[in-house]
C-alpha cells in the first residue's frame, strides 16, 4: 500500500530535507522511525526539498510498504522513534498513482522576519532578523512584480539543478504583525534559494537601497550576480502543498500567522 504523511519539523536540527551521508537529513530521521514501525525499510518522497535550517509546518511525503498498520500507528509509532523537533501529523492511505511531488499543483512558503533593533532570544533559529525599520509599503509594491510566470534566474542559487528557471508565482504578499513581517509565497514550484534570495532583495527595497523599478529590473536582468545576498534560512517555513480534492487527503497546509506573535 501507499501511505501519505503530513510532517512538521524544526530545520535548525537538520541538514535539509534530503537524505545525507551522515544521516542528518529530515528524510533520514523519518525513514529510520517509519522502518521501526513497518519492520522493513521504506523510502520517502517529499512534495519539496527544504534547505538546511529551513522549517516545515506542513511538508507532505509518501512511502510504499507491504505492511498493514492502522493509520494512527504510522503517526504515533513513528513519533515514538523521532527526536522532538520532527513530528508526523497525520497519515492517509492513497491511491497507487499518487505522488507527493508530482501530484502537487502548488507549494506555499512563509518567511517570518523579526524587525527590531535587538535580535529575539526566544525565537532564535525560528525567525529571520533585521535591525533597522523597513518600508513595508515599498516592499509590498515590489512584490507585485513577482506575480505570474517569470524567468527567476536573478533569484536562483548558482548550484540549482532545476532544468528551467521559469516558475509561476500565484501569490506574493507581505503583512506586518507587530514586530514581525510575514511574507507569503505560493507557486507551482520554487528554485533553490529562490525565496531567501527574493526576501534578501526585498529587504534592500525596505532599506531604500533599491526602489521598486530597480527591483523589477533585477528580475528582468536574470543575473544572480547583480542581486543582493541570500537572506538567512532561519525564518523560512514550508507551509503547505495544494493537491486535487480527489486524493482525499487531510488538510495539507498550515499557517505561521496562527502562532502568537505579540
From TrEMBL:
The active site is at residue 51. The keyword tRNA processing applies. The keyword Cell membrane does not apply. Keywords: Isomerase, tRNA processing. Formation of pseudouridine at positions 38, 39 and 40 in the anticodon stem and loop of transfer RNAs. Homodimer. This is tRNA pseudouridine synthase A. The gene is truA.
Amino acid at each position: 500500500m501507499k501511505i501519505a504523511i503530513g510532517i512538521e519539523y524544526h530545520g535548525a536540527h537538520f541538514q535539509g530535507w534530503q537524505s545525507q551521508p551522515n544521516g542528518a537529513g529530515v528524510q533520514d530521521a523519518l525513514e529510520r522511525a517509519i522502518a521501526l514501525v513497518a519492520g522493513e525499510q521504506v523510502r520517502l518522497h517529499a512534495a519539496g526539498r527544504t534547505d538546511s535550517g529551513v522549517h516545515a509546518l506542513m511538508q507532505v511525503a509518501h512511502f510504499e510498504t507491504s505492511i498493514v498498520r492502522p493509520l494512527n500507528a504510522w503517526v504515533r509509532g513513528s513519533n515514538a522513534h523521532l527526536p522532538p523537533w520532527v513530528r508526523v501529523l497525520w497519515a492517509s492511505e492513497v491511491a497507487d498513482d499518487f505522488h507527493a511531488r508530482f501530484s502537487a499543483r502548488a507549494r506555499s512558503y512563509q518567511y517570518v522576519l523579526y524587525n527590531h533593533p535587538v535580535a529575539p532570544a526566544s525565537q532564535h533559529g525560528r525567525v529571520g532578523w533585521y535591525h533597522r525599520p523597513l518600508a513595508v509599503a515599498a516592499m509590498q509594491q515590489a512584490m507585485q512584480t513577482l506575480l505570474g510566470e517569470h524567468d527567476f534566474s536573478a533569484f536562483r542559487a548558482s548550484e540549482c539543478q532545476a532544468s528551467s528557471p521559469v516558475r509561476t508565482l500565484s501569490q506574493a504578499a507581505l503583512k506586518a504583525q507587530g514586530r514581525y513581517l510575514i511574507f507569503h509565497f505560493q507557486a507551482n514550484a520554487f528554485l533553490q534559494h529562490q525565496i531567501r534570495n527574493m526576501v534578501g532583495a526585498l529587504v534592500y527595497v525596505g532599506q531604500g537601497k533599491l526602489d521598486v523599478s530597480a527591483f523589477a529590473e533585477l528580475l528582468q536582468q536574470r543575473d544572480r550576480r547583480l542581486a543582493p545576498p541570500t537572506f538567512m534560512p532561519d525564518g523560512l517555513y514550508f507551509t503547505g502543498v495544494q493537491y486535487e480534492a480527489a486524493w482525499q487527503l487531510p488538510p495539507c497546509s498550515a499557517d505561521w500567522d496562527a502562532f502568537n506573535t505579540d
